[in-house]
């Protein structure tokens, strides 16, 4: 067949993925190799070019790790590129008991079937773009901008094969916490030929920056095209510039800054296994047996569960894939981990009350678990709470990787107005975040959630400097920050177990609470329905942890 094709039309290249030695094909080809497998192939087979006929499985929340693949496509001379599987989900509009939804294998009484495996596109079944489409567009953008090691120069690379950048308007502006994300742009006059690079000085006086900033450079169409109007941003980059205090932001708040200088004592009452603390207009309740914490101010519940250590998340379709992490987490019973209080101490330090729980968070039936000290600090006469968690994982069969390491709390459902400074406005994860810009954003809790055709983990926002969740009915806003490092959060109306149980969006019933996760670490997404799990740098390893979240009413 190979010989016949070449004899009949010698201009045609022949692709045949099962032929790993390319004896009957004009190129080497693989599906879903790891980066290491790609390196091995490129090193050992150099007589023909190499293509990935599939390299990213766009199933549900994912794929992650596209950046590393495209980098290899662009830097390895033998790499021709790769293809994403696939464009859109293939659900069929269906109605059951008056509810219309997009159905998949098994919803028609059919057997055997491939269940949700047809839900593997960059768009939903109705062709609504999913977060993965925005991420893919960002990663393959035709213009790349990088910052020099000393932050004095930027290099612009034109990845077009035949076009210069004269059809694009280049501009720049700064994004800073507290300054606003819609600053006016300044034109950037550059000329870069196809396939070439140009280096120019950073167009901002870095000595004038008192806080961290992101130099945002955009390339937008000058004229209307059939596929997009003038002004459509074809490529953008945000380059991090340190302020006068490296890594600091207007949003930084340390535990010490929360402590009130007044020395008035809190009102402390122990009744049986409960500890009640009155501080200013706030009342905190500590369950000394179960470890639960509540917070009420002027008769309004801030939260009625937590903040407690939490390591689980709902599964994605990639987690549940043939090489995904779900099987490891199921075997380790991560979903069943519960807090056991081993000891409790409290003391008044003069400007605050500290309540320290020694806890074990573990599955009930296995040896492994997390052993930690959680210290809750309540400043005198101030509506604030600091949570310091320090611990490690012990015992045999501890999973190497966890879904997350952070805190879980249940807020009253009226806490619905969300604002943050970090990546946004859309959801993002450690290995799928480049399309989401640093800036200040606002949303309702419902709008944070991505309604995939097949319900799963969704809605994370990462690299935050601060988070605020407001209760407009009570005129209260809860401010959350983490000491020293950026953090991530999700706020939703569904529990992780609700998401795991649901088969379609209409199976989800909103709860009368806002479930808030504040995470120090979060696992990546990967592409493990048929490809690799998250790459090493995106894994949430089960090692020692030490973090502090500061909550305050503002």
What's the helix and strand layout?
Layout lengths: L1 H7 L19 E4 L3 H10 L5 E8 L8 H10 L3 E7 L6 E5 L2 E5 L27 H9 L3 E5 L5 E6 L9 E8 L10 E2 L9 E5 L11 E9 L11 E9 L13 H4 L8 E5 L2 E6 L2 E6 L5 E5 L2 E11 L15 H6 L6 E11 L3 E11 L6 E11 L4 E11 L9 E9 L4 E8 L12 E8 H4 L12 E4 L1 E6 L4 E7 L4 E6 L3 H6 L11 E10 L22 E9 L1
Parallel strand pairs: 1-2, 2-3
Antiparallel strand pairs: 4-5, 6-7, 7-10, 8-9, 8-11, 11-12, 13-14, 14-15, 15-16, 16-17, 17-22, 18-19, 19-20, 20-21, 21-30, 22-29, 23-24, 23-26, 25-28, 26-27, 27-30, 28-29
Task: Walk me through what this model shows.
There is one protein chain. The chain is mainly beta. The chain folds into 3 domains: 2-131, Glycosidases (TIM Barrel, Alpha-Beta Barrel); 152-241, Immunoglobulin-like (Sandwich); 263-412 and 483-549, Beta-galactosidase, Chain A, domain 5 (Distorted Sandwich), CATH 2.70.98.10. The protein contains 8 helices and 30 strands. It has helices spanning 2-8, 35-44, 66-75, 131-139, 255-258, 326-331, 445-448, 496-501; strands at residues 28-31, 50-57, 79-85, 92-96, 99-103, 143-147, 153-158, 168-175, 186-187, 197-201, 213-221, 233-241, 267-271, 274-279, 282-287, 293-297, 300-310, 338-348, 352-362, 369-379, 384-394, 404-412, 417-424, 437-444, 461-464, 466-471, 476-482, 487-492, 513-522, 545-553. Strands 13-14-15-16-17-22-29-28-25 form a 9-stranded antiparallel sheet. It has a 9-stranded antiparallel sheet with strand order 18-19-20-21-30-27-26-23-24. Strand 18 (338-348) and strand 19 form a beta hairpin. The protein is globular and about 90 Å long. The termini are far apart. Mean pLDDT is 93; it is low at 250-263.
């Amino acid at each position: 067949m190979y010989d016949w094709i070449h004899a009949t039309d010698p201009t045609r290249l022949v692709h045949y993925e099962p032929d790993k030695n390319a004896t009957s094909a004009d190129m080497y080809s693989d599906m879903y190799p790891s980066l290491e497998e790609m390196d091995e192939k490129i090193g050992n087979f150099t007589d023909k070019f190499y293509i990935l006929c599939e390299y990213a499985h766009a199933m549900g929340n994912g794929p992650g790790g596209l950046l590393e693949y495209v980098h290899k496509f662009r830097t390895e001379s033998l790499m021709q590129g790769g293809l994403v599987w696939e464009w859109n989900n293939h659900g069929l509009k269906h109605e059951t008991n008056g509810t219309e939804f997009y159905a998949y294998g098994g919803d028609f009484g059919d057997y055997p079937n491939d269940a949700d495996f047809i839900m593997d596109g960059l768009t939903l079944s109705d062709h609504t773009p999913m977060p993965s489409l925005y991420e893919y567009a960002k990663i393959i953008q035709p213009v790349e901008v990088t910052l020099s090691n000393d932050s004095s120069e930027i290099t612009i690379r034109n990845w077009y094969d035949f076009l210069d950048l004269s059809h694009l308007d280049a501009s720049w502006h700064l994004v800073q916490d507290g300054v606003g994300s819609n600053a006016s742009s300044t034109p950037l006059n550059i000329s870069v030929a196809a396939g070439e690079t140009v280096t120019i000085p950073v167009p901002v006086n870095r000595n004038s920056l008192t806080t961290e900033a992101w130099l945002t450079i955009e390339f937008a169409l000058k004229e209307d095209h059939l596929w997009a109007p003038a002004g459509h941003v074809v490529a953008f980059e945000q380059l991090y510039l340190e302020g006068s205090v490296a890594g600091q932001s207007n949003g930084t708040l340390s535990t010490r800054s929360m402590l009130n200088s007044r020395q008035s004592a809190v009102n402390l009452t122990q009744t049986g296994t409960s500890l009640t603390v009155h501080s200013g207009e706030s009342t905190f309740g500590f369950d000394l047996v179960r470890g639960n914490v509540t917070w009420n101010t002027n008769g309004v519940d801030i939260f009625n569960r937590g903040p407690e250590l939490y390591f689980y998340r709902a599964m994605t379709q990639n987690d549940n894939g043939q090489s995904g992490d779900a099987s490891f987490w199921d075997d380790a019973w991560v979903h069943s981990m519960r807090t056991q209080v081993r000891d409790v101490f409290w003391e008044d330090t003069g400007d605050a009350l500290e309540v320290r729980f020694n806890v074990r968070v573990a599955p009930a039936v296995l040896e492994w678990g997390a052993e930690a000290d959680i210290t809750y600090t309540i400043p005198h006469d101030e509506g604030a709470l600091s949570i310091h968690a320090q611990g490690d994982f012990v015992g045999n069969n501890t999973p190497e990787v966890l879904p997350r390491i952070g805190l879980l709390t249940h807020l009253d459902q009226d806490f619905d107005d969300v604002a943050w400074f970090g990546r946004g406005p859309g959801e993002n994860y450690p290995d799928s975040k480049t399309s989401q810009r640093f800036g200040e954003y606002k949303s309702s809790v419902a709008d944070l959630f991505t309604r995939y055709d097949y319900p799963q983990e969704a809605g994370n926002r990462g690299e935050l400097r601060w988070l605020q969740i407001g209760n407009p009915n009570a005129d209260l806003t809860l401010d959350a920050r983490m000491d020293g490092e950026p953090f991530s959060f999700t706020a939703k109306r569904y529990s992780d177990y609700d998401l795991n149980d649901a088969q379609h969006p209409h199976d989800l019933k909103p709860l009368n609470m806002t479930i808030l996760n504040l995470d120090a670490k979060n696992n990546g997404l990967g592409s493990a329905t048929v490809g690799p799990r998250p790459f090493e740098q995106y894994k949430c390893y089960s090692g020692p942890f030490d973090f502090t979240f500061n909550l305050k009413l503002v």
